[in-house]
Structure formats: C-alpha cells, structure tokens
Specification:
Layout lengths: L3 E2 L1 H9 L6 E4 L2 E7 L8 E8 L5 E4 L6 H13 L7 E5 L5 H4 L2 H8 L3 E4 H7 L11 H7 L4 H15 L11 E3 L12 E5 L8 E5 L4 E5 L23 H12 L6 E4 L5 E2 L1 H25 L5 H7 L12 H19 L4
Parallel strand pairs: 5-6, 6-7, 7-8, 11-12
Antiparallel strand pairs: 1-13, 2-3, 3-4, 4-5, 9-10, 10-11
Amino acid sequence: MSLQPNHSQFEAWVSHHLPDTLQVEEGVWAAPLPLKGDQYVRHTYTYLVLDDRGSVHVIDPGWNTVDNRTRLEASFGQIGKRLTDVKTIVSTHLHPDHTGLASWLQSQSGAPILMHRAEADATESGPSMSIAVGFSKRLRSWGAPWAERTKLYIELWRQRQLKDEISARADVRLEHDDVLDIPGRRVRVLHTPGHTEGSICLYDEDTRSLFSGDTLLPMVHPGIGLSGGPQSSRQNPLARYFDSLEALTRLDVDMVHPGHGYSFQGLPDRIEETAGHHRRRSDEVRSILLSEPDITLWRAAEKVHWTAGWANLHGFMRLSAVAQTAMHVDYLRSYPAE
C-alpha cells in the first residue's frame, strides 16, 4: 500500500498553513500547536484521546507558549471538554515541542505526566539533558573552522537554554510493553529508540492505530541520536533506530498519527522509505571516506548531499548535519558489513 495521507492535513502542510483541530478517528483529535521560530516543520500535533468515561488523555503537549495554551484550551472547547477533564499526559520523547505544555496541563488538571524511563532520567540530569551537550568539545575534533566554531558556540549556548522549556518531571516512568491506563482502550507502549534514547510509540491494539511521535514521519526523515542526557546504551543510535523500525514492521497498523505532518496509511512503505534513506546516507558517507581517508568530519559533512543543501544549513541545523555525519561514521565502523 502506498502512503495515503489525511487530505485536509496534507493540504495544510503543502500550503504551509496551520490546520484546524481535526478528528482523525473515533474519539481522537489532532490539535496543531506551532513551534517557536522559523522552522521547516511548523507545528506539532497534540492528540486528545477520549476514554469510555469521557475523560481526555493528552499525547505530546506542544511547545510552551501563551499562544499554544490558548490554542489548546480552544481545542478542548471544540470537542466539548475542559482542561480539568485531562486524566493523563504522555510525551513520546523529551523535546520541548512534545513536552513543553506538560507541566502547565498538570497544573490545570492534576493529571500525571508519563514518559519513558530514559527520558525521565534525562529530565533529572539538569543542563546535560540539552541535545547540545558535548558538541562544543567535539567541534574542534570534527575539524570545524575557527569562524564556524565561533558562530556555533553561540548557537550551542542558545540550545542549552532549551532546558528552561522543559520543566516537566515524570510521575510515571514507562517501560516497553506497558499498557496505558485509558479505560475502554488498550494502548501499548513501544520503546523505539533512535530519535532519542527514550522515544516511544503508542499502539492502540483495538483500532490498529499508531501514535509515532518523531520516530516515523510522513514528509521528512527525523534526526537520529538527538537524546538529552547520557545514552543508556553504547550501541550506535542509528543501529538502534533500524531495530526500532524493524519492530514496527511486525505491527498490524491501519493508521499512523505522527508528531508532525499528517496522519497516513501505509506504514510498511514509509518504514522502507525511511530505512532506505538512512542506508543511502551511510553509503554516501562510506564513499566519501574511501575517496579521502584523511578527511575531517566537517569536510565530509560538507560533501554530503543534504536535502536543503549544505549552504542552506545554518546554526543548529548545520551542527546537526555534522553530528549526523559523525553518527554514520561510527555506524560504519561498528557495522562494517552493513
């Protein structure tokens, strides 16, 4: 089956408009909440899931802004609910566009915050939970030119401030195969490391729908290895991600509800496309290393054919590109036969 999108969400994505809050299946609404800044991905979907007692369970509360608080409260009103109807708040991973409003929602409802144990551990590690940790020390070893290092040090400082956007602390630490307490629904937790160490997907066994967070997206390929805090595994994040995608292929899924983009059908096709993208990127990095064995990571990253083009990558996006290149180099060294 080819990728079949939710048409109204897809049209909003293509036209760069913020879609309306939309019922994506029986008892489930997708509320779009804008991200901060001028970014290619413009909004996160916060999902409102009703149980058979009329309570609301929130998946991925978006970025914490006054505007988003107003938008989310309006979405509750649209479905005839109030913030006090929230019973649980689940984050698929610890990034501010998926966790930012959790503490505020909890203050309005008293509902517990749930996230995977690895993400919960990261929230308690203070400044080290920033995805920028360690990058400043690695820039020189990566061969970044002095002028680039100066600009990126400023960007790293800005990224470290993102810790202030994440004030949530987990009341419940989730593990793989846990079943969420949503009366009338059987929603299972799937640990899918890759994007972050503690990324999860949520699988509704009755409706055969998958809430994929940033593990799988319909229109872009999510970054890999963007964890906060120390990795709980020494295994390469890309290898972990391939394992996660393989595990998802064993699910019987009718509809995927991602963190960004639009709901879609055709999970196996999108998994194949996504895994293929990363394998091609590894092949490209391998070719660069074979042609110039002594090349620095920075120069190797410059030679990679990035979707937006190296010249159009600035700030954290350029930093991320070099970090992704380093991850592929590590993967090739750890899995030379791949």
